[in-house]
Amino acid sequence: MRELTYVARRTVEWREAPDPKLRSDGEAIVAPVAATPCDVDSAILAGRATRRKPQIGYSIEPPFALGHECVARVVDTGDAVTAVTPGDLVVVPWSINCGTCDRCRAGLTAHCSTVPHMAMYGAPIGGTWGGLFSDLVRVPYADAMLVPLPAGLDPVAMASASDNWSLARRLVAPHLQARPGARVLVVARGSIGLYACDIARALGASEVLYVDPEPEHRAIARRYGASTAESLDPLPQGFEIAVEATGRVDQLALTVKCLAPEGVCESAGNHFRPGELPLLDMYLTGVTLRIARDNVRAHIPDALQLAASGKVAPEKVVSHVLDWEALPTALPEKHLKPVFVRNEA
């Protein structure tokens, strides 16, 4: 089989690898059918994740297999697998988790204690698990990890349920449930922020302001019913909920300054650079700030249920639908949210 392999900044290539084999009766082999880069993949392709190893504390030097968002077709399963069968379409979560340790049972699937810290697809952190831009992928804990795609949902629209789509729901849904009709601020550069706009409006936000320098991104946000701005006015604006997904600490600092008293900010950006936050302002306002890698497996079922409700339109974020074979040439290009589709015939 082939793995799409990151070899240098803006450079990926197909490399041959042995076909994965079942290593236990609880595993599955899947074949991605619709895969898409997430916002951290964009950082890897730009070289930001590998240039700054001292800040992140891990070495992710190339070459390594890339990709951690996809809908896949189950090809084979071990005898103990009961949740899926060959032929099923499934969402493959980005992090590796066993489903049975204390952390997994508590919903902390990104912190599974059975596997090495930060075990994931798409980067050689916490072991080597391959990437989801591969012809075949081994899933070590099939019943715990794989989530069947509900009938009627388009694999292209839901290719990001492995991470960004499900993360976006988690960023806003619990807070809007606690604060119905809240004003929501989204400061972003990629798909997470746009998904958050769609979900916030669908779940009853009274106002959504989307801030992004890219005109094409702002146009999508307006189609979701958000108001938009090219840059953020640092004056307090009274937002109860904010989402920052830029990966820039200066933008996070401006975001928290826009919160209402006791407001909450979810930071979903990958901050590879250090920076300063306005801690005194945050203290005086009573800001709650959460910066966390996402326990996405715990949120995928609810995110898929929301997608199936018809209240949201994640397909509007898909910028291009491209052939699987175009991955080496098209993936390094700067597209918002391309989805690469494999012909199963």
Brief sketch in words of this structure:
The chain is α/β, with parallel strands linked by helices. It is 26% helix and 23% strand.
Compressed to H and E, one letter per element, the order equals EEEHHHEEEHEHEHEHEHEEHEHEHEHE
- By CATH, the architecture of the largest domain is named Alpha-Beta Complex
CATH superfamily descriptor of the largest domain:
Medium-chain alcohol dehydrogenases, catalytic domain
Please compute the radius of gyration using only Cα atoms.
19 Å
Multimeric state: single chain
Low-confidence stretches: 52-56
- With helices defined by DSSP (H or I, 4 residues minimum), what is the helix count? 12
Number of domains: 2
Strand content: 15-25%
Total E-strand runs: 16
InterPro entries: ADH-like_C, ADH-like_N
Cofactor: Zn(2+)
Domain Alcohol dehydrogenase-like N-terminal: 25-149
Domain Alcohol dehydrogenase-like C-terminal: 192-307
Give the SSE layout.
Elements: E1 2-8, E2 11-16, E3 28-35, H1 39-45, H2 48-51, H3 53-56, E4 64-65, E5 70-77, E6 89-91, H4 102-105, E7 137-139, H5 142-145, E8 147-148, H6 164-178, E9 183-188, H7 191-202, E10 207-211, H8 215-223, E11 227-229, E12 239-245, H9 249-257, E13 259-267, H10 279-285, E14 288-291, H11 300-308, E15 320-323, H12 327-330, E16 338-341
Parallel strand pairs: 9-10, 9-12, 10-11, 12-13, 13-14, 15-16
Antiparallel strand pairs: 1-2, 1-4, 3-5, 3-7, 3-16, 5-6, 6-8
Helix pairs in contact: 6-7, 6-11
Protein name: Alcohol dehydrogenase catalytic domain-containing protein
Pfam families: ADH_N, ADH_zinc_N
Domain Alcohol dehydrogenase-like N-terminal: 25-149
